[in-house]
Each structure stands twice: as C-alpha cells, then as structure tokens.
Amino acid sequence: MQTPSHPRFFSRSAARFLLAAALLLAALAPVTTQAGAQIYEPLADSVREALSAIVADAPVAPERIRRDPLAARWIDAQSERLARRVPDPAEREELLATVYYESARAGLDPELVLGLIEVESGFRKYAVSTAGAHGYMQVMPFWVGLIGTPQHNLFHLRTNLRYGCTILRHYLDLEKGDLYRALGRYNGSLGRPEYPNAVLATWRKYRQPELSPASLRR
After folding, report:
1. What is the DSSP string of 188-217?
2. 42 conformational bin, left if phi > 0, alpha if psi -120 to 50, beta if neither
3. Does an H or E element contain 107, and which?
4. If 206 and its partner were Cys, which of 82, 111, 169, 188 is the partner (CB 3.0–4.6 Å)?
5. What is the pLDDT of residue 59?
6. Average pLDDT of the chain?
7. What's the CA angle centered on 196, arms 209 and 187, to 5 degrees?
8. Contact 125/85 with Cβ under 8 angstroms?
C-alpha cells in the first residue's frame, strides 16, 4: 500500500495542486485577447464635445428597459443563445438589457453589437487586448481622456458599452454609413477584411430584425 510519503503519491498530489493553482490564477487574472484596437486620431472640438455629452448621459436601469415588451422579448430570445457564454442569469440579463439600450441609443442594431462583443472579447468583461483595449467591446483607454472623465471605468458594463457604441457610431458617421470600413476602424485594421467579415458573420447568428427597436428595423 502506498502512503503519502511515497514518491509516486507525492508527485500526483503535487501535480494536482499545481494544476488547481494555475487554474485559479488564470481565473483571477485579466483575460488577454487578440482583438485589435481603435487608433488615436485628433477630433475636431465640435465632435469631441458631442461625443463627451453622449458618454456623460445618465444610465437607464435594466428593469426599466424590460418594461418595453419588444425589449423584453429580445432579451429573452438572446438569453438562450448566451447561456453558455454568460452562465449567470442576472449577469446575462443586465448585459443584454444594456446592449439593447445602448445600441439603440447610438442607432446601431443590438445584434451587431452582440456580434462585435463576441469577436472582440468573447463576452469576457475583464478582457484586455495585446494593445491594451479593455472590456466587452475592447475600448482603448485613450478615449477616456479624449471624451470622458478620469472616473470612467472601462471594465464597468454600462460604461464600456456606452463608449463602444458611441465610438462605432462615430466611425460609421466618419465613413458615411460604410459599416465594413467603420468596423475596420473600430478594430484598428482598416483595409483588411478579416475583422469586418468575422463581425458581420457573427451578427447574422444573432439577427432578429422583427425584435429590433422600431427605429432600426430593416
């Protein structure tokens, strides 16, 4: 019979301990993604002031968003799709309600924003890209200094989505509605097809135009 002092017993126990420790550290550490990042470009004062006003606007509580029957149906339908990626029901509810509100507020399809989040961060709240972009929508920190305030935390759900949707709307306006080029700018890969193609393909997976906000239906 082997005892705890037996070399083979110790080796297996040590291996299990090291594996458990490694998994714990991995769970606690920020996730690094291979997503790209927006590139800093000076903004005209009028554009900067307009974007600053948008990101400074007050939030809306998720439970208030659910009072809209269309929003509630959209959240429920998308919740089934996200159950594996975001297992906690309360976290999933808050994420989807915020996506719905912030995307509609920016004039974006909420399914497009879900597709972008999946490609950018895999729905990981604390994802950090190799370029230093943060959170669900992989927002570069320079935007906080450019249009926000030092108190804005890009790992905060609503803040991240507010910035991300505002930035993508800005790029869409800059590119005169060309979504393909706007996505390239968002990812910092303008002119290369891989990222826009990935987001557009993922967008189709979430598409439910009949449940989109009325102002955005195709």
Report:
1. T-TT-SHHHHHHHHHHHHH--GGGS-GGG-
2. beta
3. none
4. 111
5. 78
6. 84
7. 115
8. no
